[in-house]
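sorry for the late reply, my laptop died twice this morning and i had to redo everyting from scratch. anyway the thing you sent over, i finally got around to it. pasting the sequence first so we're on the same page, its 283 residues, then the predicted structure underneath. double check i copied it right bc i was rushing
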Amino acid sequence: MRIGFWGIMAASLAAGISAAPGAWADESPFAYVYTTDTQPAGSAELEQWLTYENGRPSESWNHVQGRTELEYGLTNRLQAAVMFNYDWLNIRPHGPAAADSAADEFTYTSTGAELVYQLSDPYTHPVGVAVYFEPSYGSDYQEIETKLLVDSHFLDDRLIAAANLIVEYEWEREDGDWHKGTEVTLYAGLGYRFAPGWSAALEFKAKREFDGIAIFQQASAAADSFTLGPTLHYAQEGWWASLGLQEQLPWASNLSGDTGETVGGFAHEEPRTALRLRVGIEL
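ok and here's the structure:
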C-alpha cells in the first residue's frame, strides 16, 4: 500500500518533536539528518563528506559526491560555513533501454555558503529549533537550499529524535540549456548512544521532485521517492565520524506520467543505494 507523501511528512515531524527534554553529550548520531546544534562562538570545525550512490535500471551508474566544509561559530547561536562541492560520475549503459549515455568524469560542482541560526536549543527547551540557509554557485549548477530543523533529547543523554523539512531550488545547465527544478524533502531520524562514544541511528527520507520553481513559478510534480537505512557514529575528543546507508524503498510514485519516471516502484532519478561517510575534526 502506498503511503501519502504529506502524511509521512506530518507523522515524522511529529515524532521528531515529541520527545522529552534531556542532554546529548556527543556529536550528532546522523549521517543525513541535521540537528540544531551550532558551533560555540569562536570555535571552528572541518567536515569532509563523501557520498557513494549507485543503481539505475539498464545501466551501471556510479556517482561519488564530495563536500569539504569549514564551519565557524559567529555566536553561540549563529554558525557560518563555506563549502566546496565536487563529484565523480561513471555510467556504462546496458543496451538501448538505458536512459543515460556513457560517462566517466570528475566535476567541480559549486562553491557554497551556509548560515544556521538556532532559535531554541534542546538542552534547555523541550524542542530545539533552527533555521538553515545555503546558496551554492557553479558554472553549470546553482542552488538555494532552506531547512527547518527540529530535535529533542531524552533518556538521560542516550536518545535523540530529529526531523528536517528542506526546500531546494536548483538550476542545472545541460547541453547549453538551463533546467529548473524544486525538491521538497523530509528527513527524520532516531539515534541511540549504546556505549561511550558510539551511537546507532535509523534515518528516513521522503522526497517530492518538481519540474520548475515551485511556489514562485508554475511547477509540476514529477515523482515521490522514499529511503530508509541505518547509521553508525563514533566520537572522541577532537574528531568524530558517521557512516550511513540508505536504500530506496519501492514506494515511488510517478506524478508526471512521463515514461521512465519510475521503474518497478523506484524513482529513476534517485539512486537505489547511497552510502555516506562524514568526518568532523575540531580546529
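The mean pLDDT is 89.
thats about all i looked at so far, will dig more tmrw
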